[in-house]
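User: My advisor asked me to double-check a structure prediction for Conjugal transfer protein TrbG/VirB9/CagX before group meeting. I don't want to rely on an old file, so could you generate it fresh from this sequence?
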Amino acid sequence: MQRPLILTTCVLATIGAWGQTPTPPPAVQPKAPRTVEVNHASAAPIIRTSLNQSTLLELPPGEKVATVFGGNTDDWIFNAGHVASRFISVKPKAAAAKSSTNVHIISDHGNDYTLELKEVSGDPDASFDSTVFLTATDPEAQKKQAEAPVFVPAAEVKEKEEILEKEAADAHAAAEAEKASAQRAKEQYESTYPSNLHFDYSWDEKKAKALGVRQIWDDGKFTYIQGKFEEPPVVYELKDKKGSLINFDFANGLYTVPKLLQNGYVAIGKARVDFHREEAN
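Assistant: Sure, here is a fresh prediction for Conjugal transfer protein TrbG/VirB9/CagX from the sequence you gave:
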């Protein structure tokens, strides 16, 4: 008579087990911010992380992240941002069975902060580090912190490269615009140049022929004297009936005086040709 009772009890126990609701896994909760000491003589500190949750790691004041690399980049995200700073965010993409790695953070002062990252969403104590303040405790690292940075953070290099590239592009664009503007001004000047020539000078034709002077004109800014000279004469400006030497260029029988002369003369020894510019009506 005992066997049916045992069978019935087993069946009822099984049915009761089927009807039970599975206990949900504990919710993952962030832990309060904490400080972690890093020392090369000790094992790497363990940082508790949770699936799809970010953990913020913060370097000591005065240091910036120069570069960061981890052992498992397939299942983890390491983000130091686009601007050089003290902060780096780590986040596991895979669950605990696959996701455990280490991370090396090199600061701009040359300090290496090595940490072990552990994904804990499957642990009974499912709490993870939300913010971790890193501090170096070995004397050598503390000495480096007091010295000037030895590395330029990659983000700063990229930022400077972008600034330099933009400045170069802006300078090139400005040069091209200036070149185009100069070309337009040149074309405009050349198109109107013939109308800017003025043949308003008078001189003694007989003396000019003996000296070799053939023509004198100006373009409103420069004065030109053209001739066929056995010996190039000297050009003078005449003011208050007094002659003074002036600067000029001479090539292929053409004098170019970089100013507008109203009165002047050319001379070789005692031979002289005076010229005068008539004001246009």
